[in-house]
Each structure stands twice: as C-alpha cells, then as structure tokens.
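#onboarding

Welcome to the new folks! Below is a worked example of what a typical request in this channel looks like: someone posts a single protein sequence, and someone else replies with the predicted structure as tokens. Don't worry about understanding the tokens yet, we'll cover that in week two.

Example request:
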Amino acid sequence: MSSWNERMKSLKLLGPLMLTVACTAQEAKPPPSAMPSTAALATPSTAAPTARAEASTAAPAATTEAHTVPAAQAAVARVRGIDVSHYQPTVDWDRVKASTSFVFIKATDSSGVVDPRFASHWSGAKKVGLPRGAYHFFHPKHDVDEQVALFTRHLKSDPGELHPVVDVEEFRDEYQAFTCEQLAGRLQRFSQGVEKALGRKPMIYTNHQTWQMSFCDHPYFVDHPLWLAQYTNHVTEPKLPPGWKRWLFWQYSESGTVPGISGAVDQSYFNGSVQELMALTQGRP
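Example response:
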C-alpha cells in the first residue's frame, strides 16, 4: 500500500531499528491530490492498508542509523518497515528481511480487484518470517459489503500477523458525491464487517487532508489503530488528527530504498519497541 503514491498510479514494513533524534523540522508540503497492499510497512497521500495468524519464531533483524546532533538532543529508537503492491513486482524477501521489520501488502481494491502480486508477496514475506499486514483500498461508491467479502475472503485462511488495514485516500470521482456523515457511515460498515469476519478491528490508513475534508475528523474511528501518512522530516513527530491519542504506524516517505527491491518504496515507522511490535503479532493490542 502507499499513500499519495498509490493514488497517483491508478484511479484511480521486524527490519531495521532506526536511531533518530527529536528535533524541529518544517512539515513537508503534500503532493497534489490524485489516487495504497496494500498492502507496504515512503510518503503519504490521500488514499491507504491486517489480521492475526501464527507468529513468526524467527527473530527480526535490527540495524541502527545514527544522526550527528547536539548532545542536548534526545535520541529515539524507531522500528522501520515498508509497504508493497504490484508496483514492486519482484521482491527478494531474504534481503528485505535483513533491513526491514515489518511489511504491509496490498490485497484488494474496490469490490472486485485483487492485487496481482498479493499471493506471491504474502507467501514470500511469511516464508522469511517477516510480520505482515494486508490492506484494502476503500472505494465509497462501491458496495461496502462486497468490499468486505472480497478483502476478508483472501485473509481468513492466513490473516497475517498485524492488523488488517483499510486504506482511505480521497479522489474526487469517488468522494465528491458524499457528505462526511455518509462517508463515515460507509467506512464504519466496512470496519464492522472486517472485525466480524477476522476478529480484529482494522487499522485506518489515511492522511490529514482526506480525514479532515471528507470524514470531518469523525470521532467514531478514534479507537481504531492509526496508520498516518504524513511526509515530514523522519525525526519529527507527526501531528495527529483530532481525537486520536497516538499513531501506531507512520508512513513518513514514499521514496525510500530497500535492499531487495528495485526502485522507490514506501517506508513507515512503528510507534513502539521491537517487543511491542512482536506483541502485535500475537494479536494483542
């Protein structure tokens, strides 16, 4: 999944433990609107991408990246991952595992589209013991129950280790016909359907512009895990949408590079330690 990245290409992430520092940076200006695999744990957009399965027994690789800063600034360790879809058709999962802690993978789109690389990405990540989450690209104009059925049908036998994700990114042709309340109602129906089928509340992947303009910062979803797409300097804490107390994942870049994948890839942080990430793979909140 990607944020801005996924939207722009159609109607249209345990890896390195990064050492970063808390410092002030100016928020990057988001790209213009256009049309995530999922399910991918580099930069957000107005679009976005899990479930529970047997946890990997393999210990994730951990690396550190150091930044030279004044001694007065406090260091913060972050766990980093990626998200992928058919836009990354070939992945060397052994190489990816050496530098990545988790991955979100695009599974489905709308009410009838299955990402052509989902099956191979899903099994490839599992084979190397990389914690996975799947995401669905939400289309409000399409039948919500059919979208739930499509997404959950591909996860019931192997729901992955991380939360299932609903990617919420705006593109005018899909969103302009609805009010905030109508859009929130349709997304609520999708969330309830996924939770009923998979036993886990889906994570919301979104960005500030979409959430504010199309969902009016609706309070119903503040108890859902948040995967926030906000492209800023990666040592700066992202601003939270109203109501949410914390982000669980933060997609900070859409132009990252990872050994084992050709070209740019979305990158995200997990808001916690390696141990806390592993707790998620056991289905704990």
